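TICKET: design request
STATUS: open
ATTACHED STRUCTURE:
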C-alpha cells in the first residue's frame, strides 16, 4: 500500500505525490487543485483509473514508430520525454491528465512496471496532509 502526500502550493492550491511502500516517488499530480477536497477526489480517481487501466490493458504507446492504436479514456500513455526517457501519464474517464511519472525510465519495461506500481500503491492508500 502506498501513501499520497497532499501539499499546499505557495499560491494556496493543492497537489499530491504518490510514494510506493518502499518510499520511492512513483507519481505526481499533473494539475493543481483549488481545494483540498478536489485534490482528494483526484487521488480517488488515480486509484480507480490506474487499476482499471492495468486490468484492462488500457495503455496507449506513443513511442512506437507507427501510429499508436488509439485507446479510449481512461488510459495510461507512454511517451518519450525531451531527454529520450520513457514516461507515463494517467488520464481519467473525462480525458483529463491526473497523474504523471516525475522521473523518466531508461526502458519501456521499467515504465510499464512504474504504471503497475501506481495501480497497486494507489489502491486503498494512506493519505497524509503536509
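STATUS: resolved
RESOLUTION: sequence designed for all positions
ATTACHED SEQUENCE:
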Amino acid at each position: 500500500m502506498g501513501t499520497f502526500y497532499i501539499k499546499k502550493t505557495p499560491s494556496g492550491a493543492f497537489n499530491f505525490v504518490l510514494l510506493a511502500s518502499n518510499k520511492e516517488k512513483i507519481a505526481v499530480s499533473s494539475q493543481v487543485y483549488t481545494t483540498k477536497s478536489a485534490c482528494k477526489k483526484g487521488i480517488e480517481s488515480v486509484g480507480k483509473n490506474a487499476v482499471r487501466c492495468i486490468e484492462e490493458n488500457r495503455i496507449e504507446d506513443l513511442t512506437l514508430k507507427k501510429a499508436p492504436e488509439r485507446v479510449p479514456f481512461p488510459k495510461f500513455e507512454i511517451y518519450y520525454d525531451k531527454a529520450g526517457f520513457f514516461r507515463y501519464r494517467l488520464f481519467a474517464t473525462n480525458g483529463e491528465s491526473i497523474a504523471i511519472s516525475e522521473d523518466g525510465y531508461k526502458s519501456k519495461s521499467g515504465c510499464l512496471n512504474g504504471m503497475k506500481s501506481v495501480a497497486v500503491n494507489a489502491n486503498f492508500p494512506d493519505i497524509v496532509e503536509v
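CLOSING REMARK: The radius of gyration is 14 Å. The beta strands are 3-8, 14-19, 25-29, 59-61, 75-80, 86-91, 97-100, 126-129.
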